[in-house]
Design brief:
8 strands
């Protein structure tokens, strides 16, 4: 059985004081990590606060991005080595907003995944298609391409331990969502792609999240599906009560 993983993605929201208040409100109330992995993905400004406030609890912290080099003349970028030293456990990479607005490529995302592993953290690698691709019925082909390129040269052990998040671009921040059957089908495409690349054992271990307008009211529908192991949640992760409700629905 794959352990569920719920990860909040705050995107570019909150202030330092709001981040601290959130962590204080949820850190001691989340379920034990033998039932579910509870993760908060925060802007870099608040990571130190979240790590500090979550010490001794089962709340885990994710960065929303990093660079693929540990140090150098890369003004404005975030070092994976510095994130690991801070105590960050996960890094979200390949989010559709990063791909679309900042023109990140599959090759760059692959380099980030390698750097994250090299520094002892785990990537949450995102994939997803546009509405145009979905309506053209080319989703499976698109997703397979993103996964194949994103996992290039990673070891079977690494892929087994990481998280992959399927987020259809047309369901992010729109209020629309792929229904549970669609989500399960495409998460199944992700799993079958991993199986082609690494075999059944790895495919059975890798955890795959669905993301896109997930809320406490609908998360159980997704979690009931065979290929959905968790959720990458945007808006519903911003408030402490809502985040806790998501965890309670899957523990």
């Amino acid at each position: 059985m794959r352990k569920p993983i719920i990860a909040g993605n705050w995107k570019m929201n909150k202030t330092a004081s709001e981040a601290k208040a959130f962590a204080q409100a949820v850190a001691t109330k989340i379920p034990s990590n033998d039932k579910v992995d509870s993760v908060v993905g925060s802007p870099a400004l608040f990571l130190e606060t979240l790590v500090s406030e979550s010490k001794g609890t089962d709340l885990k912290v994710a960065a929303q991005n990093c660079y693929w080099e540990n140090a150098g003349a890369f003004t404005g970028e975030t070092s994976p080595a510095a994130l690991a030293d801070l105590g960050v456990q996960y890094v979200i990479i390949g989010h559709s907003e990063r791909r679309e607005y900042f023109h990140e490529t599959d090759e760059e995302i692959n380099k980030k995944a390698k750097a994250i592993f090299a520094n002892g953290m785990l990537p949450i690698l995102c994939c997803g298609e546009s509405l145009e691709t979905y309506e053209a019925e080319k989703t499976a082909e698109w997703i397979e391409g993103q996964i194949t390129a994103g996992l290039a040269d990673l070891s079977a052990e690494q892929v087994s331990s990481m998280v992959i998040a399927y987020e259809p671009i047309w369901a992010i921040g729109t209020g629309k969502s792929a229904d549970a059957t669609i989500a399960d089908t495409i998460c199944g495409v992700v799993r079958s792609t991993v199986e082609k690349l690494y075999g059944n054992d790895v495919a059975s271990k890798v955890r795959i999240q669905y993301g896109g307008s997930v809320k406490p009211e609908n998360i159980a529908e997704y979690m009931a599906k065979e290929n959905v192991d968790g959720a990458l949640v945007g808006g519903a992760s911003l408030e402490a009560d809502s985040f806790l409700a998501l965890l309670d629905a899957v523990k």
